[in-house]
Specification:
Keywords: Cytoplasm, DNA-binding, Phosphoprotein, Transcription, Transcription regulation, Two-component regulatory system. This protein has about 240 residues and is an alpha/beta fold. The chain has two domains: about 120 residues, 3-Layer(aba) Sandwich (Rossmann fold), CATH 3.40.50; about 100 residues, Orthogonal Bundle (Arc Repressor Mutant, subunit A). The protein has eight helices and twelve strands. Strands 2-1-3-4-5 form a five-stranded parallel β-sheet, with helices on both faces. The chain has a four-stranded antiparallel β-sheet with strand order 6-7-8-9, covered by helices on one side.
């Protein structure tokens, strides 16, 4: 599935050179670009323009990028890709836990950013009430709680199934360790219980016949969480 052409993208960054670079490059990929330089304007523009995706710098004057994200998430689930000069894991995790769909660290390659934008748009395009998720040879029937790989059923424990469901339902997005722990085990677990995740992801990979060094379905984001791969992004 390809990303929709002509998708509206709102670029929020206080650096004119970055906005110009993004505008020229993304327009060359047939995206419709809207831009603004501060947080307050970003919230207003998001409500007026109704973008298909937002590229959001965290280091904004006035209202911070995290505050913008929080405000927008109060009423919209539009995909948000955070563009940040902050390289600490804590900052990336905070952005993802706060509702960002992905992040790209400055300085960044335009090719990577365009690829991330396409992944986010494809994820939205395939987010429906359809009870069957298909990823190449892997089929997950949510209604029947049935998982098939290359035509054969995969036997999963209830916990393994719940973990696979959360990851696959958010294909293309990074799911943080905290988000995964909360959605699979409930709120009584703490981030320090991340060893649960490593154990269960290991079990899942084995049952999905996956080489951890060359992930076919589940990609580890070191120190942050996991990303279930859309099949046309495997190997990128």
């Amino acid at each position: 599935m390809t990303a929709p052409q002509g998708a509206r993208i709102l670029v929020v960054d206080d650096e004119p050179q970055i906005r110009k670079l993004l505008k020229v490059t993304l327009q060359a990929h047939n995206f419709e670009i809207h831009e603004c330089a501060d947080g307050e304007e970003a919230v207003v523009q998001a409500s007026i323009v109704h973008p298909d995706l937002i590229v959001l710098d965290l280091g904004l004057p006035g209202m911070s990028g995290m505050d913008v994200l929080q405000r927008i998430r109060e009423w919209s689930q539009v995909p948000v890709i955070v563009l940040t000069a902050k390289e600490r894991e804590e900052d990336k995790i905070a952005a993802l836990d706060g509702g960002a769909d992905d992040y790209v660290t400055k300085p960044f390659g335009m090719g990577e950013l365009v690829a991330r934008i396409r992944v986010a748009l494809r994820h939205v395009a395939k987010t429906t009430d359809e009870p069957v998720l298909r990823f190449g040879p892997l089929i997950i029937d949510l209604a029947q709680r049935q998982v098939d790989l290359e035509g054969s059923p995969v036997k999963l424990t209830p916990t393994e199934y719940e973990m696979l469901k959360v990851l696959a339902s958010n294909a293309g997005k990074i799911i943080t360790q905290r988000q995964l722990l909360q959605q699979v085990w409930g709120g009584h677990h703490h981030e320090s219980d991340s060893h649960y995740l490593r154990v269960y992801v290991g079990h899942l990979r084995k049952k999905l016949q996956e080489d951890p060094t060359r992930p076919r379905f589940i990609q580890t984001e070191p120190g942050i969480g996991y990303r279930f791969l859309l099949q046309d992004d495997v190997g990128k």
